[in-house]
Amino acid sequence: MAQALLQPDKWISNYSDALYAYTLVRVSDSALAEDIVQETFLSAWKGKDSFKGDASEKSWLYTICKNKIIDYYRKKGRDIIQPIEGKDVSDGFFNEAEHWTTTDAPGDWGIDYQQAIESKEFYKILNGCKKKLQQLQQSVFVMKYLEDLDSEEICKALGISSSNYWVLIHRAKLQLRACLEKNWINL
After folding, report:
1. Please, are residues 85 and 134 in contact by the beta-carbon 8 Å criterion?
2. What is each CA distance from 81 to 29, 57, 77, 99, 164, in whole angstroms?
3. Which residue, 9, 107, 126, 154, is most buried by CB atoms nearer than 10 A?
4. pLDDT at residue 29 greater than cutoff 50
Protein backbone atom coordinates (compact mmCIF):
# COMPACT_ATOMS: atom_id res chain seq x y z
CA MET A 1 0.00 0.00 0.00
CA ALA A 2 2.80 2.46 0.88
CA GLN A 3 4.44 1.79 -2.49
CA ALA A 4 1.25 3.08 -4.10
CA LEU A 5 2.14 6.50 -2.68
CA LEU A 6 5.31 6.54 -4.77
CA GLN A 7 5.29 7.82 -8.33
CA PRO A 8 8.76 6.94 -9.70
CA ASP A 9 7.74 7.94 -13.22
CA LYS A 10 7.35 11.55 -11.98
CA TRP A 11 10.46 11.80 -9.78
CA ILE A 12 12.62 13.48 -12.39
CA SER A 13 10.02 16.04 -13.45
CA ASN A 14 8.87 16.73 -9.88
CA TYR A 15 12.10 16.65 -7.89
CA SER A 16 15.27 16.69 -10.00
CA ASP A 17 15.71 20.49 -10.15
CA ALA A 18 15.03 20.98 -6.44
CA LEU A 19 17.29 18.08 -5.42
CA TYR A 20 20.01 19.40 -7.71
CA ALA A 21 19.82 22.90 -6.17
CA TYR A 22 19.83 21.39 -2.66
CA THR A 23 22.88 19.28 -3.50
CA LEU A 24 24.81 21.95 -5.40
CA VAL A 25 24.82 24.28 -2.40
CA ARG A 26 26.33 21.48 -0.34
CA VAL A 27 28.99 20.15 -2.72
CA SER A 28 29.78 23.22 -4.89
CA ASP A 29 30.37 21.12 -8.00
CA SER A 30 27.69 20.85 -10.68
CA ALA A 31 28.83 17.50 -12.11
CA LEU A 32 29.06 15.99 -8.64
CA ALA A 33 25.63 17.39 -7.73
CA GLU A 34 24.16 15.76 -10.85
CA ASP A 35 25.79 12.44 -9.95
CA ILE A 36 24.45 12.56 -6.41
CA VAL A 37 20.92 13.31 -7.63
CA GLN A 38 21.16 10.39 -10.07
CA GLU A 39 22.41 8.13 -7.26
CA THR A 40 19.48 9.35 -5.15
CA PHE A 41 16.96 8.31 -7.77
CA LEU A 42 18.73 4.98 -8.33
CA SER A 43 18.79 4.21 -4.60
CA ALA A 44 15.15 5.24 -4.27
CA TRP A 45 14.22 2.97 -7.17
CA LYS A 46 16.12 0.05 -5.64
CA GLY A 47 14.58 0.72 -2.23
CA LYS A 48 11.03 1.50 -3.32
CA ASP A 49 9.74 -1.79 -1.91
CA SER A 50 10.98 -0.81 1.53
CA PHE A 51 9.15 2.56 1.47
CA LYS A 52 6.75 2.48 4.43
CA GLY A 53 4.88 5.70 3.74
CA ASP A 54 5.83 7.24 7.11
CA ALA A 55 7.04 10.33 5.25
CA SER A 56 6.01 11.96 2.01
CA GLU A 57 7.66 10.87 -1.20
CA LYS A 58 9.46 14.23 -1.35
CA SER A 59 10.80 13.93 2.22
CA TRP A 60 11.90 10.37 1.54
CA LEU A 61 13.84 11.44 -1.56
CA TYR A 62 15.46 14.38 0.27
CA THR A 63 16.52 12.04 3.08
CA ILE A 64 18.12 9.70 0.57
CA CYS A 65 19.86 12.65 -1.09
CA LYS A 66 21.08 13.99 2.25
CA ASN A 67 22.53 10.56 3.07
CA LYS A 68 24.27 10.46 -0.32
CA ILE A 69 25.86 13.84 0.42
CA ILE A 70 27.00 12.64 3.84
CA ASP A 71 28.39 9.46 2.25
CA TYR A 72 30.33 11.63 -0.20
CA TYR A 73 31.92 13.64 2.60
CA ARG A 74 32.52 10.52 4.67
CA LYS A 75 34.42 8.94 1.77
CA LYS A 76 36.19 12.21 1.04
CA GLY A 77 37.20 12.47 4.70
CA ARG A 78 38.98 9.11 4.50
CA ASP A 79 40.82 10.21 1.36
CA ILE A 80 41.90 13.61 2.66
CA ILE A 81 45.45 14.03 3.85
CA GLN A 82 45.42 15.79 7.19
CA PRO A 83 46.71 19.37 6.92
CA ILE A 84 50.32 19.91 7.88
CA GLU A 85 50.67 21.58 11.23
CA GLY A 86 52.19 24.99 11.00
CA LYS A 87 51.08 28.55 11.00
CA ASP A 88 47.45 28.76 11.95
CA VAL A 89 45.25 30.92 9.73
CA SER A 90 43.94 32.52 12.91
CA ASP A 91 47.39 33.40 14.32
CA GLY A 92 47.02 37.11 13.56
CA PHE A 93 43.44 37.42 14.80
CA PHE A 94 44.09 36.96 18.52
CA ASN A 95 46.47 38.39 21.11
CA GLU A 96 48.32 36.48 23.85
CA ALA A 97 45.20 36.53 26.05
CA GLU A 98 43.25 34.93 23.17
CA HIS A 99 41.13 38.04 22.62
CA TRP A 100 40.49 39.58 19.22
CA THR A 101 43.13 42.04 18.11
CA THR A 102 41.81 45.55 17.55
CA THR A 103 42.24 45.35 13.77
CA ASP A 104 40.74 41.87 13.38
CA ALA A 105 37.78 42.00 15.76
CA PRO A 106 34.49 41.28 14.01
CA GLY A 107 32.78 44.48 13.00
CA ASP A 108 29.18 45.33 12.32
CA TRP A 109 28.38 44.21 8.79
CA GLY A 110 25.70 46.88 8.49
CA ILE A 111 23.16 44.44 7.09
CA ASP A 112 19.44 44.94 7.65
CA TYR A 113 18.51 41.39 8.59
CA GLN A 114 14.83 42.22 8.20
CA GLN A 115 15.29 42.57 4.43
CA ALA A 116 15.97 39.58 2.25
CA ILE A 117 19.56 39.26 1.11
CA GLU A 118 19.99 38.91 -2.63
CA SER A 119 20.20 35.19 -2.04
CA LYS A 120 21.38 34.09 -5.49
CA GLU A 121 24.29 36.50 -5.44
CA PHE A 122 25.08 35.78 -1.79
CA TYR A 123 25.10 32.01 -2.29
CA LYS A 124 27.31 32.38 -5.34
CA ILE A 125 29.85 34.28 -3.25
CA LEU A 126 29.46 31.88 -0.30
CA ASN A 127 30.11 28.92 -2.60
CA GLY A 128 33.19 30.62 -3.99
CA CYS A 129 34.44 31.27 -0.47
CA LYS A 130 33.62 27.72 0.57
CA LYS A 131 35.71 26.38 -2.33
CA LYS A 132 38.73 28.23 -0.94
CA LEU A 133 38.61 26.20 2.28
CA GLN A 134 40.80 23.14 2.68
CA GLN A 135 38.79 20.04 1.74
CA LEU A 136 38.51 18.79 5.32
CA GLN A 137 37.39 22.24 6.54
CA GLN A 138 34.81 22.35 3.77
CA SER A 139 33.54 18.88 4.70
CA VAL A 140 33.18 19.82 8.37
CA PHE A 141 31.49 23.14 7.55
CA VAL A 142 28.95 21.58 5.16
CA MET A 143 28.12 18.72 7.49
CA LYS A 144 27.71 21.08 10.46
CA TYR A 145 25.89 24.04 8.96
CA LEU A 146 24.18 22.72 5.85
CA GLU A 147 23.42 19.13 6.86
CA ASP A 148 22.87 20.05 10.53
CA LEU A 149 24.81 17.08 11.89
CA ASP A 150 26.16 17.23 15.42
CA SER A 151 29.87 17.23 16.12
CA GLU A 152 29.95 13.61 17.27
CA GLU A 153 28.38 12.40 14.00
CA ILE A 154 30.83 14.50 11.98
CA CYS A 155 33.85 13.22 13.89
CA LYS A 156 32.69 9.64 13.40
CA ALA A 157 31.94 10.11 9.70
CA LEU A 158 35.27 11.80 8.95
CA GLY A 159 37.38 9.82 11.40
CA ILE A 160 38.67 12.89 13.23
CA SER A 161 39.04 13.71 16.91
CA SER A 162 36.79 16.16 18.71
CA SER A 163 39.63 18.64 19.19
CA ASN A 164 40.53 18.41 15.48
CA TYR A 165 36.87 19.05 14.63
CA TRP A 166 36.79 22.24 16.72
CA VAL A 167 40.01 23.54 15.18
CA LEU A 168 38.71 22.81 11.67
CA ILE A 169 35.33 24.46 12.23
CA HIS A 170 36.95 27.48 13.92
CA ARG A 171 39.40 28.00 11.05
CA ALA A 172 36.67 27.49 8.45
CA LYS A 173 34.49 30.15 10.06
CA LEU A 174 37.39 32.60 10.26
CA GLN A 175 38.29 32.07 6.61
CA LEU A 176 34.67 32.33 5.48
CA ARG A 177 34.21 35.51 7.50
CA ALA A 178 37.27 37.08 5.92
CA CYS A 179 36.23 36.01 2.43
CA LEU A 180 32.64 37.24 2.85
CA GLU A 181 33.83 40.55 4.22
CA LYS A 182 36.15 40.99 1.25
CA ASN A 183 33.75 39.82 -1.47
CA TRP A 184 30.27 40.61 -0.14
CA ILE A 185 30.15 42.98 2.80
CA ASN A 186 32.87 45.52 1.98
CA LEU A 187 32.32 45.86 -1.76
Report:
1. no
2. 20, 38, 8, 31, 13
3. 154
4. yes
